[in-house]
Amino acid sequence: NMNYLMELPLHLLNVLLALGAVYFAIRLIPLSGRAKAWWLFSLAFVLFALERLSEYLVHLQVLFTLNEQGIFSDVALTMMGALLLGGIMAIRQIFIERNEDKQQLKTRLEELDLSRKQIESAYHEWMTAFDAVDDPMFLHDAEFRLLRANRAYANQAGMKFKAFIGKPYYEVFPKRSEPLPSCLNSLEQVN
To answer: Which of 44, 100, 102, 180 could form a disulfide with 83 if both were Cys (CB 3.0 to 4.6 A apart)?
Structure first.
């Protein structure tokens, strides 16, 4: 019986490790969004803990006979194998779905990149056409601050773009004390 007492720490360590595995497997449920795999693993580890505990109880001659414990161990190990296999298959499904999600995300990113390039191209074409006009042209916001002007406007103003962008256009070109009447009328119509 002394040998069996020396096995006690090992059996208890096996039980504690199995219960620790159960604890961490259950904690993975919210992270993966899936319960099935982690419950299957948890049940397998509970069976492992019970099998280890039953073996120790046999040595102490408390619960089972050696023959009964052998049958219990065989059944428990078979069930553990089935549960672990089920858990692995469920995890495999998680990885398959994650790979599909990753591929869909990659495809969407490629589509967005293509759209960005098309928008940039359209912007550059618009800017080229805007700058090609020989007459001064500009865009302003609701406060009449310059957002964009063509080269002809910059030449008429006698300034570089950086010097006038953001300033009220009527302080740059054409110099006036207030916005043009057509701009004031447009703003009134919008409001």
So the answer is: 44
